[in-house]
Amino acid sequence: LARDNGFWIAAQYALHGETDSAFVWLDRQAWTTPMRTDLRCHPSLDRLRSDPRYAQLLRKLGLPVAIRSDS
Fold first, then answer.
1. Neighbours of 20 (CB within 10 A)
2. Helix 2-15 with 19-28: angle, nearest 10 deg
3. What's this model's pTM, rounded to 2 decimal places?
4. Which of 15, 16, 29, 63 minimizes the number of CB atoms within 10 Å of its CB?
5. Do 43 and 62 meet the contact criterion of CB atoms below 8 Å apart?
């Protein structure tokens, strides 16, 4: 169950500034296609995008590393 909810648990940690805990849960997530989309664009993870571990996770999942731009 935690592997299916890891993204949402990570999102809550990220929103509260708990970056290390957020990445622990992102590493536990079972990455289905919809969840990969959320990883790339969900605003609750904005605080994580500047962390090198974010780009590392994207590479691990075979996703482009370019950061989202709101401009």
1. 9
2. 160
3. 0.81
4. 16
5. no
Structure tokens at 9: 């648990």
Task: Please give the Cα distance from 15 to 60 (Å, whole number).
Answer: 23
- HSE-CB for 30 with a 13 A CA cutoff: 5
Q: What is the pLDDT of residues 31-69, one digit of tens each?
A: 887 888 888 889 999 999 999 999 999 999 988 887 555
Angle at 62 between CA 59 and CA 64, to 5 degrees: 70
Sequence-ordered alpha helix ranges (H) in the chain: 2-15, 19-28, 33-41, 52-60
Residues 60, 67: Cα–Cα separation, whole Å: 16
CA 25 – CA 11 distance, rounded (Å): 9
